[in-house]
Amino acid sequence: MVRVSDYWQMLQLTSAGQCRPREQPLAKAWFQGQWAEPLAQGSLSEPDLQTHLWQQWRAAMAPVYPINPGSAAADPPAPQPSPREARLAELCLRCWLSHRIAGVCRQLAHQFGEVYGFTAAALWPLVLDDDGRLESAYRPLSLQILDTYDPTRASLGTWATRLTQNHPEINQFCLQQGLYRVSNWAILNDTEVQRLPRALPHLSPAELTEATALLTAYHRVYRQARLALRQGGKGRRCAEPTPEQLQQINPDLPPRLVLSRLHGLAEQLRTYRIAMRRRTPLSQSLEGMAERGFDPEAPGEDPSQRMGNWVEEEFQQRYKQLFRDSLGEALQQVLQGYASRYRQRQPPQDQAYLQALELFHCQGLAMGKIAQQVGLASQVQVTRLMQLKRLRAEVCAHWFNQLQRQVQDRALEHLSTDQFDAIVQQIDQILMEEVTGVMAEAAAEAQMPKHRTSQSLFARQVCHLLAGSDQP
Q1: How far apart (Å, rounded) are the C-alpha atoms in residues 128 and 12?
Q2: Bridge partners of 318?
Q3: Span 152-193, pLDDT tens digits
Q4: 78 and 71 in contact (C-beta within 8 Å)?
Q5: Are 152 and 48 in contact (CB under 8 A)?
Q6: Fewest 10 Å CB contacts: which of 77, 216, 217, 426?
Q7: CA distances to 74, 102, 279, 464 from 459, in Å
């Protein structure tokens, strides 16, 4: 059923940021005079109505060329709408599009808002930018949609949805929330194997070798099948690999385990892409910079730009262990504080807290199932109990402070004071980026609604600490 009021009520934001319909009297009077009767009689569908309105607007916008007097006779052209009629048709479409745009924001908030912490109201100011004027130099999103719309390729609603979902400001907002709206399979499909060392600098050589083999096998099996689908005119979206494909990717493992490892690799790559698109890329690790070498006396070389010879072989071998050990120390310190505070509650909740962490990070259980096992009423109570965002923030701060102090102490063993002063700021920047990169990976892993794994360094350290192990 056509909601005719949508064609003369434009959704606009109030000063308080609320979304409210505002009647456009000119659009209402013109629309009711032109289209009320055929719509009431049921002789005009909404897609046809939108096509007629678009054609009325387009006909007046496009130039009309006279018929060449020497050419063959032609049918008389259809009456052209006046510029005012064209503007009113445009305004009616803009009103309708405002409802569609607001609806797309609600859909995105329904899909992702609870996990990534936003509502439709946070998205509306980014795209509900039409002021309803008939003449304006500014081109709101609704007019951008009309300018690029082609009725032969899609419906107006589909085109509006596509452009709203992919609006640059919507994409940027989602990235800032840690949401990158591309499937894991699309990420794996278009990630080149040679980029893995740069994208995943925190992996050990053995872990990088394993990730390289997994991605190579995925490309060999999945890309070939996808190419065949696309040649047959099918398969626009990257679907989940079939059990047969998973078996081909790694015949030595159960398909379910292969699927879990693919999810884990994709989420790490997703974290890297979010960092790149936020323009806060992770720097190369201290080890990677050391491998390139550094000569502070080289002509034209700024010591603050490169570093390396101070990182002697002994330090290179110890840095990775230092990196992980300091995370373990920070985790132990923070978790002991949390457990101590929960122990003082009535009744004590320290055991429930530690059990919930173990079930979440080590067994991958959802909040609802964790609630059943630790004796809480709902997943909301589990979320409040674990306080994962706060936990990661506190661990990040403690970890950076410990790592910074230990790295600087070791650097001073190999550098003069002047050399140290030249690179200390860069050391701190690299350490902060590496630490926050690990925490971003943990946050992305924690947000996986299903198939969550314990592949992030943070989760592995939590699990080994809860299990009483000293090794990550």
Answers
A1: 6
A2: none
A3: 777 899 889 888 988 888 887 887 777 777 778 888 988 889
A4: no
A5: no
A6: 77
A7: 75, 38, 26, 9
